[in-house]
């Protein structure tokens, strides 16, 4: 994947704090990724408009939990590959990245986004399962 950042964008980044720079770079990466691979955006739109009727609340919960687990497994696979390549677990990576101890290379921005997504999916799954208990 080829990522391009204009000089004016780079100059503007210099005016931001470290956290603001990371947020800007992450957003830019996400936008470029969506433009490069628009099928992701289309799939997300299709999924949001889909209406499914379930015969019981339990069936609905099972389907939602299954979808969350499938997404969680996919993200965990990507995280595992990054962990092996970088010889560091994702939790430690994210701590160091959040502290500004690592660069903002595209691979690190992608890893940070995947880890955030992983945490979000786990939180959503936990919420759904706690509602049952």
Mean pLDDT: 76
Number of strands: 0
Spatial extent as radius of gyration: 18 Å
Question: Unreliable segments (pLDDT under 50, ≥5 consecutive)?
Answer: 42-46
- Shape designation: elongated
In total, how many domains does the architecture comprise? Answer: 2
Secondary-structure arrangement, i.e. CATH architecture of the largest domain: Up-down Bundle
* CATH class category name of the largest domain: Mainly Alpha
The total count of helices amounts to 6
Terminus-to-terminus distance: 44 Å
Helix content: over 70%
Major β-sheet, in short? none
Give helix and strand order, one letter per element, not per position.
HHHHHH
Which class of secondary structure composition applies to the elements? mainly alpha
* Quaternary: single chain
Assign the CATH topology of the largest domain.
Methane Monooxygenase Hydroxylase, Chain G, domain 1
Percentage of residues in strands:
under 5%
